Amino acid sequence: MSAPMKRFAYLSFLKLFNELIMALNKFMHPRNKYKSKKANFQYLAIKYPEFRKHVYPDVSGKLFLDFRNPDSLRQLSTTLMKEDFGLDVVLPPDRLVPTIPLRLNYILWIEDILKDSSIKGDISGIDVGTGGSCVYPLLSARMNKWRFLATELDDTNFTCAVKNVERNQMTNLIQVQKVEKDVVLLDVLETSAATYTFCMCNPPFFMDNLEAQGITNTRSDDRPEPHSVNTASPTESVAFGGEVEFVKKMIHESLELKTKVRVYTSMVGKKTSLSPLKEELRKLKILNFSTIEFCQGKTMRWGLGWSFDENIKFPKSEFKEKRKEKRPPLSYVVPEDTPGIMYTTEGVAYQIKECLKQLQIKCEDKKSNETKISMVLTAYQNTWSNQRRKAQTSQGETISRTFIRH
Length: 406
Fold this sequence. Notes:
single chain; alpha/beta; two-stranded antiparallel sheet; 11 strands; methyltransferase; METTL16/RlmF
């Protein structure tokens, strides 16, 4: 294959693969402000000097942020909360950095549940394990004036959450409560006469430190590696039995609390966790439950909600509904002036296989004839993200980090 052909074909297939990945964005919640308007790094870098230190341009001048750098992630989240919600938040180092579009998707789902269930008036929520950012209560209070009880185990996170609430003058809406290890809901609510509209939770994903460090892996084979670094501390990311056992405990405690909380919800980080959790709900005869997809960028998470109130209605999943629809196949037309290609079915198929090899994608032949060749493609790792940018910058052009002038 000639060098021009390799470069042309390689970038063409990268475009197709990235289109497939970024298709998740169209399933972001329709009211999520980041669905139609992505964060403008150029604007933010000019307005916020601290953010400016964490972005860099490619040869075309487009700015990028290193999502593998915890400090960069921390600065992005604090900048978005200030710019888009008027919240002044300080995030402690070595603690979980909240991804704002994802957290916003979760809150908007809660809004939909309340709307579909005709719940109005004084809304109160519980955030189980609020973290140092106290992100769910702060965003919800700013957007909807909801009242919150935010619980936290970690001393550093508790102190930081209290300061963030005070810094934003929301002590009238948000109470942060320190709890002991293994406390979810029951120990907080069983002796209280208070009732709550909903609860939300971002449980520890991992069952042990080996899994958290990636030494052992429970990710399904069809899931790509995470796009950003894990910034959570062990107390935030690890619990006995991982998120499945944590949410199961939450389900069992809800059996005792019943309608003290009208709607129980939790985020779920791994798709493989959904089946055992739904099975647990069925086993306990909790039949009013639902799941939802939280789609943003290259990441998907899931929401699980259940209730003992028959009047609670959960919104349908747009992602599931769209998946049921017949979609046109992804197609790519080989331009007539492409150099070095034989315009036969076998010739085009050969060039496709060569491109796939460069992307380290396994290609297995299936049925074929004179006009059609079928192949099964298997990608064991993400080898195509940002390759267009890498191909451009590999031409010997120097990237300058001192690109912004006042």
